[in-house]
Design goal:
Length: 349
């Protein structure tokens, strides 16, 4: 099959996405597909051939690595010769329409929020993962929290907040401490703060203005970080994440070598795994997600699992968690990519 692995874009998770894209592309080529990886935002910039000929090459972007810092998206914007407002680079849609399928290696906004899926639905382009509406719902942490509550899934007490700079002094007095402050549609622990003092809360809210001033504030639960993936109609073995260089599983701990230890299957009881797995599958279905997802939990000292959020396009980098879970049930990385592709195309038929 001719497959475009779409990566990059203008998300704060751009670097993560590019590495996901390269790994997925290599795996699909290993399985015999004519796969190419393309940066959604740059498209065919610098490419001289016809869009349909890209499948005869080895890919469209160079080496990509995840730096310790989030990408400078304004620099990426300035660096594209095409200065139009389109988030699809020159020729990007033409290449996607020439493919048999698009494997979505995008993360965060501009990929995980449903906008790309909606464009592809209108154009009749087959793609992997969930549809546009469920993707948008899952990306919005407040909507996801509401679905958790409707389904009876335990989640920390929370509040949705929209604010301007002048609201910060009032919010600093109103909001509980310690707490987690999360931008409404962030990922990869970008746009996340865990303040324990009023001063830290002030700084956190000021930082969140840079993400649009729309956040979810939730009670901080102390415990072990556990995540459970869903593939098809089943949940996978749990992973415990133990950060080595940070107090929590932040961006650097997730993606830098030696930043964390991931144990799969997690050393937890069968009952705890089943509880989290069933909650992950219920939330996946409750949001209308399809094919695959990954749900994050905290397991407290009393053995209670608290559901935090769900990822509709979980990372597929060498250090990502879903591939570790698949490996624990005997599915290697290329087979996982093939299964995601197969399930997605079956759903759309």
């Amino acid at each position: 099959m001719k497959i475009v692995v779409l990566a990059g874009g203008l998300s704060p998770e751009r670097h993560v996405s590019l590495v996901t894209g390269q790994n997925v592309c290599a795996a699909l080529r290993e399985r015999g597909h004519r796969a190419v990886v393309m940066d959604m935002y740059l498209g065919l910039e610098g490419y001289e051939g016809a869009p349909e000929d890209v499948f005869d090459g080895t890919g469209l972007i160079g080496e990509a690595a995840i730096s310790a810092d989030a990408p400078d998206l304004e620099a990426v914007r300035r660096g594209r010769r095409d200065q139009s407002p389109s988030l699809f680079g020159p020729g990007a849609l033409e290449v996607c329409r020439a493919a048999d399928a698009v494997f979505l290696g995008l993360h965060g906004e501009c990929g995980e929020d449903g906008r790309v899926q909606a464009a592809f639905d209108l154009l009749g382009i087959p793609y992997t993962g969930s549809g546009h509406l469920s993707s948008g719902m899952a990306m919005n942490k407040a909507v996801t929290k509401q679905v958790m509550e409707r389904l009876g899934i335990r989640t920390p007490a929370w509040r949705e907040v929209r604010f301007e700079r002048e609201d910060i002094p009032r919010l600093v007095e109103e909001l509980p401490l310690p707490c987690a402050v999360k931008t409404i549609n962030g990922g990869s622990s970008l746009g996340l703060a865990l303040p324990e003092t009023r001063g830290a809360l002030t700084a956190a809210l000021e930082e969140m203005l840079g993400y649009g001033g729309h956040v979810v504030v939730e009670e901080k639960v102390i415990g072990r970080d556990i995540t459970v993936g869903v593939l098809g109609d089943r949940y996978l073995p749990a992973v415990e994440i133990i950060p080595k260089t940070a107090d929590f599983f932040d961006y650097a701990a997730k993606y830098q070598e030696g930043g964390s230890e991931e144990v799969c299957p997690a050393p937890i009881s069968e009952e705890a795994w089943r509880t989290m797995g069933e909650a992950a599958l219920a939330l996946h279905r409750g949001l209308g997600l399809e094919v695959y997802s990954r749900t994050d939990f905290v397991l407290d000292e009393a053995g209670r699992a608290w559901c935090l959020e769900i990822n509709s396009l979980p990372g597929m980098t060498p250090g990502s968690l879903l591939p570790k879970e698949a490996a624990a049930v005997g599915m290697d990385y290329p087979a996982l990519c093939e299964e995601i592709l197969r399930l997605s195309l079956e759903r759309r038929r």
